[in-house]
Write a structure and sequence with these properties.
Elements (H helix, E strand, L loop, with lengths): L3 H14 L4 H12 L2 E2 L4 E3 L4 E3 L4 E2 L3 E3 L8 E3 L4 E2 L4 E3 L5 E3 L4 E2 L4 E3 L4 E3 L4 E2 L4 E3 L2 E2 L13 E2 L3 E3 L4 E2 L4 E2 L4 E2 L4 E2 L4 E2 L7 E4 L4 E5 L6
Parallel strand pairs: 1-4, 2-5, 3-6, 4-7, 5-8, 6-9, 7-10, 8-11, 9-12, 10-13, 11-14, 12-17, 13-18, 14-19, 17-20, 18-21, 19-22, 21-23
Antiparallel strand pairs: 15-16, 23-24
Amino acid sequence: MLSYKNFARRIGSRLRRTPLPSLIINLLLMLRWGCRINPFARIEYPFSLRLGQGVRIGRSTILCRGSGQWPVVLGDRVFLHDGAIVDALDGFVSIGNDTTVNPYCVLYGTGGLSIGARCGIATHTVIVAAEHGIAAPDIPIMRQPMSAEGIRIADDVWIGAGCRILDGVSLERGCVAAAGAVVTKSFAAGSVIGGVPARLIKLRQGFSE
């Protein structure tokens, strides 16, 4: 039987997630931060979302549960297209100025996900800052401890359509990930990478090893 305390706790949790209908929440956020948000965007824990000037949010999903005062931070003029999902989970997601997240991308911030300024993240990219453990054969994988080292993507990085970027990776300034790449390790500035798993194809002109 559901006790009064448990009932009150559930109601309180629900109100923190979505204290008002989406249309009203999105209007309040637009007025507070001076940005543009689709009326039907789904934003949970909206008062834990920090937005820069000129941000545009399409009909996407943002879940701001996580660590710190601002689990999700979108810098100035960030453009989050329709269908994108940004979920801080137990960590954070920070996206720098003038970065575009295209339709149907998924960004998970368990171990911390930092994306720099002027980046382009193409459609259907998945970035997951955590990984399930598989060491114990007698324990279901979903119950094994997770590792969460975090992911760092520097300024001016272009991530092609359908890329997968896994936990522990750093992509330095000016990297280019070809469409469909599965990135399992870090790469130096100016690297052009591709494949499964991703490998170095070449360095862009003007960058050195």
